[in-house]
Amino acid sequence: MPLIGFGTFQSETNAPPGTYQAAVLEALRIGIRHLDTAWCYGTEEEVGEAIRESGIPREELFVVTNLYQTFHRPEDVAKAFESSLKSLGLDYIPYAYIPRDDFSVARGSSGKPTIDCEFTRDYISTWQAMENLVDTKKARAIDVSNFSNALANTQKIIKMAEKYACQPSQIIPSWAVQRGTSIVPESRNPERILLNSQMVNLLEEDIRIIDSLRDETNAMRMNDPRAYIGFDIYDEEE
Hints:
It is a single chain. This protein is mostly helical. It has helices spanning 19-29, 44-54, 74-88, 117-121, 123-135, 155-164, 168-178, 190-196, 204-217, 226-229; strands at residues 6-7, 34-36, 62-64. It has a three-stranded parallel beta sheet with strand order 1-2-3, with no helix packed on it. β1, α1 (19-29) and β2 (34-36) form a beta-alpha-beta unit. α3 packs across α5 and α6 packs across α7 (168-178). The longest helix is centred in the middle third of the chain and has 15 residues, at 74-88.
C-alpha cells in the first residue's frame, strides 16, 4: 500500500460537479497511486471517472473506500460494499447510527442522530462481516481508519517547519510516513495537492519530539463529534 494517498472528503457539499474528478486527476498526474473515498463523501463516482479518464491500469492503483456508520449491521456490510463498487465502476477494491431504509441517518426530535447502541458496542460483528468480503476476492484488504490528531499548529511544529524550510502542514504527515502510517490528505488546489505529497526527511530527534507532543497537548482527535451527535462518546481521561 502506498503510504502517501489522496483523500476525497467533500469539504464543500455545494462544489460544482467534476470538482473532485479534477482533483483526483491532478493527484494521479503527480504520481499518487493511493485514493481514499467513501459512500458518505458522495465522491465515489467522480473518483471512478477520474481513474478511467487517467488511463492508469487498475492494478497500479490502491483504492480505498470506507464503511459508513449506517452499514454496521453485519447483514448490511456486503450491500454497502457492492454499492461502492458500482459507484466506483471497479470490480474489487467506532459507533453506528440507526439507519433509515435508504441508509441515511435517522434523527430524533432534536435533530441529532439516533445512536444504535447495540452496534456501537458490537463492532466485532461488523469487522467479521468485513472479513467475509476478503473471501470473495472483491476486497483485497480491510483496515481501521480515521484516527488523527491536531498538532500541526503547535509552536514546536511551527519551529520545526522553519528548521526544515517547509510548511507546518508537512511535518506531521512526514512523521506519520516515517513511522509507517498511511496518510490521505485532501485538497482541490493543485499547488496544495503537490505540497501534500512532498515529505520531509525528519531527524530521529525530531521524531521523538513529535512522539511526545500528544502527552503535552492531550490531543487525540481532530474529529470530535460531540456537537453533531449531542454528547461525548469518548472516555479518554487515561
